[in-house]
Write a structure and sequence with these properties.
The protein is elongated. The model has no long low-confidence stretch (mean pLDDT 85). The protein has helices at 2-20, 44-56, 60-70, 78-98, 113-120, 126-141, 147-152. 24% of the residues are buried. It is built from seven helices and no strands.
Length: 153
């Protein structure tokens, strides 16, 4: 778990500018999630954050804390630095809550493995996982979508 927290903290670092900004900032470095071609650019931060939190579950606060400590701050004064980091943590946490992702790992997938295996006529394997990941990316990009929408999308 320690290694996962370390890796996740670095992933969070790439998301902090987007989640802390009130503007529609785009993620610069997201090579850790593979292909997001089918995800609208406007939804990529939500999708990346959703996958990261699904991986971390309740430990996402710990990874966010580590990330805010690692995040560069250009204030030399230590007490001011602490306040700035606390504010950054709270801003990112609030953004995650606004996106409705604070318990994203509890969200039931619209399409399950059995659906994928039936649709693709497979008996299992890595293609099923890849399809489920794409379905989850779609679901995160379109949070009010239905299983029927996901099957057609």
């Amino acid at each position: 778990m320690v290694l996962n927290l370390r890796q996740a903290s670095h992933k969070f670092l790439s998301l902090i500018p987007c989640l802390a900004s009130s503007e529609d900032a785009q993620v610069v470095d997201h090579d850790w999630l593979g292909d997001l071609v089918d995800v609208p650019v406007s939804s990529r931060v939500r999708v990346l954050t959703g996958f990261l939190l699904r991986e971390l579950k309740d430990y996402w606060h710990v990874a966010l804390l580590i990330s805010t400590i690692l995040h560069p701050i250009d204030i030399k004064d230590e007490p001011s630095q602490l306040g700035k980091r606390r504010d950054l943590f709270n801003t990112v946490e609030n953004s995650i809550i606004k996106l409705g992702l604070e318990k994203v790992w509890d969200i039931k997938q619209l399409i399950n493995g059995k659906d994928v295996m039936n649709a693709l006529q497979l008996k299992g394997g890595p293609l099923v996982k890849e399809s489920l990941d794409k379905a989850m990316a779609w679901q995160l990009a379109y949070p009010s979508g239905t299983a029927e929408d996901a099957s057609n999308g």
